[in-house]
Specification:
This protein is an alpha+beta fold and 356 residues long. The chain contains eleven helices and twelve strands. The strands form four sheets. A five-stranded antiparallel beta sheet has the order 8-9-10-7-11. InterPro entries: Amino_oxidase, FAD/NAD-bd_sf.
């Protein structure tokens, strides 16, 4: 239990709750859920520029990271087809991967296929089910993809000024503006209460909020004096109580609740908002292909990690289809912007390619 780990090392309840957010982030779990301690470890392992456990902003926004990878690939001869949806994986006479078919009918032949899509899309939508072992298909169908996350992107015309640390007169960003700001995290019991509400189909009345202001470090993301604010909030169920879906009214009601909470910490925030984009779990699934809206392509619980990710006997990036590899967040070691699954999968694929 995460709560036991934090209680062992710390006394301050706000500090424990703030650390606890990284144990439940992206997970339909509470700090009291068994196994939640691993997700915290997952978020603090590794290093950045030699600093252990450090995180960083991508200059130019997260899309700039994708562009950097794309440029590195094309410089080495790769061809990238953007906005070209894959319809299915081409299979040979012996059931091996031979390329992909695009939605416009174009066939791209290849000896190997690496899928960065989720296990659900890769094996339940792109491969004929009769080509896969029945127990494997059942396992993929049973992966827990519940997600509590609603992401809200906000444009503001001035920097938020928090009661705990008011802005300087010149309005320039202060050190705390350049960090991850955790709200509604005064105690782990608050997080547990927010989780409990969602398990009953109700968006949290006092949601956990992680607030980042990337433009405080990267001014090019917004016009002078303005800023972009990223809100990572939970808990919101995929399906609301009574079987109701997320319509525009439900989206805005939840976002208003989040903004009311921020207003309590930073009066004037609501008046500074000039635009917002609300992405509930169904939106994250529809737009980004995240199963259930889960940012990790599946829960990071102990029964879905290590040798069991995405399924027992298939944690080594190879799949039941010869020549088809899984290289995204649904593969070992799981989600997060670290590239470990992709690097590992590439090494396995290269090793196999030498024998073709």
């Amino acid at each position: 239990l995460l709560g036991q780990i934090l209680d062992h090392w710390f006394e301050s309840e706000p500090l424990k709750a703030t650390l606890a957010t990284d144990a439940v982030i992206g997970a339909m779990a509470s700090p009291h859920t068994p196994g939640s301690g691993y997700v915290l470890l997952h978020h603090v392992m590794g290093e950045l520029d030699g600093r252990r456990g450090a995180w960083g902003y991508v200059a130019g926004g997260m899309g700039a990271l994708s562009q950097a990878i794309a440029q590195a690939a094309t410089a080495r001869g790769a061809h990238i087809f953007a906005e070209k949806a894959v319809c299915h994986v081409l299979l040979g006479r012996d059931g091996e991967a031979q390329g992909v078919t695009l939605q416009d009918g174009t066939e791209v032949r290849s000896k190997l296929v690496l899928s960065n899509a989720s296990p659900q899309i890769t094996f339940l939508e792109l491969i004929p089910q009769e080509q896969l072992p029945r127990d494997f298909v059942q396992r993929i169908r049973q992966v827990d993809t519940r997600s509590p996350v609603t992401k809200i992107n906000v444009a503001v015309d001035r920097l938020p000024s928090f009661l705990a640390a008011p802005n300087a007169r010149d309005g320039q960003p202060l050190p705390h503006h350049q960090c991850s700001i955790h709200l509604n995290c005064e105690g782990t019991q608050l997080l547990h209460q927010a989780f409990t509400e969602a398990t009953h189909g109700h968006p949290s009345s006092r949601p956990m909020i992680e607030l980042c202001i990337p433009s405080a470090l990267d001014p090019g993301l917004a016009p002078p004096g303005c800023h972009v604010v990223s809100l990572f909030t939970q808990y919101t169920p995929s399906m609301l109580a009574g079987g109701r879906s997320w319509d525009e009214q439900a989206r805005n009601a939840y976002a208003d609740r989040v903004f009311d909470c921020i207003e309590d910490y930073a009066p004037g925030f609501k008046a500074s908002v000039i635009g917002r984009d609300i992405l509930t779990p169904p939106d994250l699934e529809r737009i980004f292909g995240l199963p259930g809206g889960n940012i990790f392509h599946g829960g990071m619980s102990l029964d879905q990690l290590y040798f069991a990710r995405p399924a027992p006997s298939y944690s080594g990036y190879r799949s039941p289809i010869p020549g088809l590899y899984l290289c995204g967040s649904g593969a070992h070691p799981g989600g997060g912007v670290m590239g470990a699954a992709g690097r590992n999968a590439a090494q396995v694929a290269i090793k196999d390619f030498r024998h073709l």
